[in-house]
Amino acid sequence: MWNLPRPALADALGYFDDVVDNTRGAQRTQDRRDLRALVVRRYALYEKHASAGTLRARFAALGPSLGASQRATLNGMYESRDGGACGRLKSAIRRGQTGPRSARCPYCAVGPPTQWDHVLPEAVAHFPELAVLNLNLVKTCGTCNGRKGTVWKPILHTYWDAIDGLPGCLNVALSVQGASVEATFTVERPANTSRDVDRVYRTLAAHCARLGLCDIWSSEAQLCIAEIRAELALGVEDGDDQADVERSLRRRARSLGRLYGPNYWEGILYAALADCAPFVELVCP
Ligand SMILES: [Zn+2]
């Protein structure tokens, strides 16, 4: 879990206009254009309240939902037959999010980002006016997008919640039995936090539960540990001792922390392995 650069609200209306201009049918195009002022207000509300709390609080802050005919008019803006307007919108978001973090899903930090999640669902029953809002679109993996679904509950907002500013909230318990090493991830509340930090922590805990992330990370860790052991074994063959093994693991944990922040499961796994004497002895008897 990590933050990504936030797209600019100033660009958002340009993409709305692009989609409207490429809408099929003169009447439908005009109907959507007539709702532009309303959409401007909703976009501004979204940005204003995005940092106010959980998604539920954000929803309340957005005020009464649109009327049925307004929702129907805006429904379907997020679709492929729009002259490529949605594609241009998505490309612009991704151009602002380069670097290693953009290569994986920011919700789970495991899967490749292949789908676009609407943070507040764009379904007609929810927020069709946010269907093409750049601030509401996050590229995620299919697993997270599917598990999040269209009935939303509190989940981390990649662009707003201070995920990188939180202390490490993940813990991994290691069990070494013979040659077998098992990892079990849990979410833990940081000690002595401010109210703001505690709010983000609670959202993070709900996010992990909703997406089943601790189970995913515990499973992913098995392959990861096997690869780590294979690499460390090469070092031991070249003369590394236990102190070298620990140092190597800690260095990797620090470099991953710098790249991906304090709540990246793999960085936390490396740090835990460095602290686990039975694991170090297993690798370097
Ligand atoms: Zn994911």
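^ zinc ion complex. The longest helix spans residues 213-237. Residues 105, 107-108, 110-111, 140-141, 143-144 surround zinc ion (CB under 6 Å).
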